[in-house]
Each structure stands twice: as C-alpha cells, then as structure tokens.
Amino acid sequence: MRISIPISAFVAAIIGFGGTLAVVIAAAKAVGATQTETASGVTAICLAMAVECLWLSWRTKMPIITAWSTPGLALVAASSGFSVGEAVGAFIVTAVLLVATGLFKPLTQLIARIPPSVASGMLAGILVGFATNAFKAIPGDPWLILPLIAAFFVIRLFNPALSVLA
C-alpha cells in the first residue's frame, strides 16, 4: 500500500472533523448555548456518528464514515435570534426532511436537479463569513493569525491538500 493512502485518510478525517467542529461550536454560540450545552451537543454528535459508522461499516462490510450537516450548521452560525430549543427543533425537522428525501424517489429526483454550481454557491455564501472572520481577527492576535494565513497560501502553491492541514 502506498503511504499516500493512509496519509490522505488521516488528513480527510482531521479536516473533516476538526474543520467543521469550529462550525459546530460557532452554531452553538450563535443560539446562546452554554459551554456545558455545547460540550454535551458535541459529545452526542460524536457518539451518534461513531454508532452510525460502526453499524453501517458492519452491515455493508466496507468502511463508511458519516458526518454532520456543515451547511446547516453554517446557516445556524450565521443567523441570530434563535434559542437552543428552536435550533434543535430545526435540526429535527431537517433530519425528517432528509430521510423523506432519501425514501421518496420524486423528492430525490427533484433535489438531484439542483445544479451543483448553485448548491456550491449557496454553501459558499454561508461559509464566506467564516473566511472573512479570519482576517477580522488579525488585530486581536496578529502574531498567531498572520503566520497561519501565510502558511496556508504558501503551502497551497505546492500542495493544496497539505495547505488545509497546515
């Protein structure tokens, strides 16, 4: 086995989890969750994903990884004026709708008709706030943030996959 395969898997796992964990925490903060509620929510999500991954991997006899809804979390994080209960309710309704989308073929076909560029643009519109916040944070700690931003762009010139990890 080539060494790039486990390294790619490691980078995907770290970025997939660690990168979106910041969005989970920002969403919890946006709805006014306490530190204890945020920790409890993150723990519940991680345990649920672990059970899902184990069950799906065992059932299909192949490695399966599940994840949380980054676009949904980013939308909550970008919004304001919602309570924790309202956010949880919105995620439950969204989960029911996602299951319905998977179970009813006409809904699946309707969603499939959304052009990927439109879906990507919608996600980018939500996530652009997180990218600009990195630059807004520079005055708070320039000795930490500027080298991180510089490292990202310099490493990206040579290896885009490693730039995300850096």
Question: Can you put this structure into words, describing what you see?
Answer:
It is a single chain. With 166 residues, the protein is mainly alpha-helical. The protein has a domain of 52 residues. Helix content is 81%, strand content 0%. It is built from eight helices and no strands. Helix 1 packs parallel to helix 3 and helix 4 packs across helix 5. It is globular. The relative contact order is 0.09.
- The number of helical elements comes to 8
How many strands appear in the DSSP assignment? 0
Helical fraction: over 70%
Beta strand %: under 5%
Q: Could you spell the SSE succession in H and E letters?
A: HHHHHHHH
Low-confidence segments, given as residue ranges, are: none
What Rg is obtained from the alpha carbons, in whole angstroms? Answer: 18 Å
Given helix and strand content, the structural type is: mainly alpha
**Cα distance spanning the termini:** 25 Å
Main pleated sheet: none
Mean pLDDT: 82
User: Globular, elongated, flat, extended or rod-shaped: what is the shape?
Assistant: globular
Short précis:
This protein has 166 residues and is mainly α.
Topology:
Elements: H1 4-30, H2 35-60, H3 70-78, H4 84-103, H5 105-112, H6 116-136, H7 142-158, H8 160-165
Helix pairs in contact: 1-2, 1-3, 3-6, 4-5
Features:
single chain, 8 helices, mainly alpha, 166 residues
